[in-house]
Specification:
CATH class of the largest domain: Alpha Beta
Number of strands: 14
CATH superfamily of the largest domain: P-loop containing nucleotide triphosphate hydrolases
Number of helices: 7
CATH topology of the largest domain: Rossmann fold
Order of helices and strands: EHHEEHEEEEHEHEHEEEEEH
Largest sheet: 6 strands, parallel
Helix content: 10-25%
């Protein structure tokens, strides 16, 4: 019989386990009994935070979905940084079409950034993933083709943690594929909200404020606004006046 304890030094607590985390997490103590002359195949510490677990025999898919300006990329970058602190091997990708802020970084509207590769298709993304990679981050998933769903499943079957961020609705308020399918296969889903620029309520929609009927029109604050259900209109609309006045 073996009594297995999992211990941390004060330094480990400081960098990996803030007080708020320790109050909510319980680490396991395993009592493992083996026949004489045999050794255990695997000893694991089990917590309740699925986002901090070491690579297991099977991976999973996390999806961060919401409107523009809701913090999707920020949350993706936060999880990627924590994975790096845990010394996991991380690769990050974005669609080649998204070069608003950088060609080789994912960048949030608040200017948080993380290095990334740009790819043309989901199949190319899969080909770029190295065998040693343990975490794959994907930003702006709505701009990928439908094959991204199968790519995410394939990576998870390999034991990779896949973290995907993207818009769940287009500028008309309709589901933005392939996000609905990704939400369906994901083990973990995070819904983010912005603040409506007109009334201050939680915003779930990306309001287009320039004339265009193209489904894909990559832009930022000069092309879109965050709006709530009441203030959103499912077509191009004039920008909110006080924002325009402030810019002038």
């Amino acid at each position: 019989m073996r009594l297995v304890f999992f211990c941390f030094t004060p330094k480990d607590y400081q960098h990996c386990c803030p007080r708020s985390y320790l109050r909510n997490k319980v680490m396991s103590i395993h009592i493992i009994q083996h026949p004489k002359g045999t050794e255990p195949e695997e000893l694991t510490a089990q917590g309740t935070d699925e986002h901090l677990s070491q690579r297991a025999s099977i991976g999973w898919v996390e999806v961060i979905a919401g409107s523009m300006f809701s913090g999707k990329s920020e949350e993706l970058i936060r999880r990627l940084r924590r994975a790096k602190i845990a010394r996991l091997k991380v690769q990050v990708f974005k669609p080649e079409i998204d070069v608003r802020y950088s060609a080789n970084h994912i960048v949030s509207h608040s200017e948080m950034r993380h290095e990334s590769g740009a790819v043309k298709s989901a199949r190319e993304l899969l080909a770029e993933v190295l065998s040693a990679t343990e975490v794959v981050g994907i930003d702006e998933a709505q701009f990928f083709d439908a094959e991204l769903v199968e790519v995410a499943n394939e990576l998870a079957r390999r034991g990779v943690r896949v973290i995907i961020a993207g818009l769940d609705q287009d500028y008309t308020g309709r589901p933005f594929e392939p996000m609905p399918q990704l939400l369906a296969i994901a083990e973990y889903i995070t819904k983010t909200h912005a603040i409506c620029v007109r009334c201050g309520q939680p915003a779930n929609y990306s309001q287009r404020i320039f004339e265009s009927e193209e489904l894909v029109a990559v832009g930022a604050g000069n092309m879109y606004e965050a709006r709530c259900r009441r203030c959103f209109v499912p077509h191009a609309d004039a920008p909110t006046s006080y924002i325009t006045e402030a810019e002038d």
